[in-house]
Design a protein that fits this description.
9% strand; globular; Histone, subunit A; 2 domains; alpha/beta
Length: 312
């Protein structure tokens, strides 16, 4: 099947964004962010969001879509991405998805179930109530609702756990039921998938360095502005890895050095979860590339892979 878009995925700090821009420049492409945090306005430093200079070099889609208090689901991403892909291809350009959010990729390339309509008012009240609960409580409740070993039962981050509970409590059916009984009516979007990954030691080195750079670039000030604007630390945006550790520092719960160490540790754990997902969920035809190779070498490989898949 001919691919309609190229997807460059991988764990955090693997160099996806730099590679995506270079590939887009060579192919005449436009980038679609596949990062569940870059959709939030105001979350710039802590999400490594592309700079205005980068956005001027190559068109970007999927950035700054919602406020930090608003949820943005994988289903919504899939709907938006389908439209962006159609528009980009209509301009004669190559759509290039770049990011590490596996659920976004799967919602587009292998849609599982048709998401039901939920009452906005009831959902808002439930979301506010769940925001006051600890991640450990949310995880315990999800594990009571979902079969052991299911995708939902393995969820770890607050946004994902809250979403699973919202669906179950507002519909009376757990996520696993929807997967089994409400298959999506949307056809999968054929993608050429490239995974960019380095050794664990190199990945950790990059993560630790990037965390230090984020603090040096003003992540603390960014968090202070968001909190001062009234956004909750429990909301979809500020509950992200990295942000919650800096929030703890801003609140005076930890010092700066401890916040950095916690941020690095949490991000390393997140990268491990990403790699586990990629190893077990990506199709066998996905191509794995060594992130330690030069940008030019990786760019050449990506272009060759895209051409082999038919170039859309």
């Amino acid at each position: 099947m001919i691919a309609q878009a190229l997807a460059i995925v991988g764990p955090t700090a693997s160099g996806k964004s730099v590679l995506g821009i270079r590939v887009a420049q060579r192919l005449g492409g436009e980038l679609i962010s596949m990062d569940s945090r870059q959709v939030y306005r105001g979350l710039d430093v802590g999400t490594a969001k592309p700079s205005l200079v980068d956005r001027a070099r190559v068109p970007h889609h999927g950035l700054d879509l919602v406020d930090p208090a608003e949820p943005y689901s994988a289903g919504r991403f899939a709907r938006d991405a389908r439209l962006w892909i159609t528009e980009i291809r209509g301009r004669g350009h190559v759509p290039i998805l770049v990011g590490g959010t596996g659920f976004f990729l799967r919602a587009l390339s292998a849609p599982i179930f048709e998401e039901p309509d939920l009452s906005p008012g009831r959902r808002r009240k439930l979301k506010e109530w769940l925001a006051q609960r600890s991640v450990e409580q949310l995880r315990d409740w999800v594990q009571l609702l979902e079969p052991a070993g299911s995708v939902a039962a393995r969820a770890r981050d607050r946004q994902r756990l809250s979403r699973i509970l919202e669906l179950a409590l507002l519909t009376g059916r757990p996520l696993s039921w929807w997967h089994a009984h409400a298959p999506s009516r949307r056809k999968p979007v054929p993608l050429a998938v490239i995974v960019l990954a380095a050794s664990r030691a190199e990945t950790y080195r990059r993560i630790d360095q990037r965390a230090m750079q984020m603090l040096a670039d003003g992540m603390e000030d960014e968090v202070r502005r968001l909190l001062a604007s009234g956004y909750s630390e429990h909301g979809p945006g500020l509950s992200a890895v990295g942000y919650r550790e800096v929030v703890a520092y801003v609140r005076g719960k930890v010092d700066r050095a401890e916040a950095l160490a916690l941020m690095q540790r949490a991000t390393r754990r997140y990268a491990r979860r990403q790699m586990t997902w990629f190893r077990h969920q990506l199709p066998p035809e996905a191509v794995w590339l060594d992130a330690a190779a030069s940008t030019e070498e990786l760019t050449d490989r990506c272009i060759a892979i895209w051409e082999r898949w038919g170039g859309g």
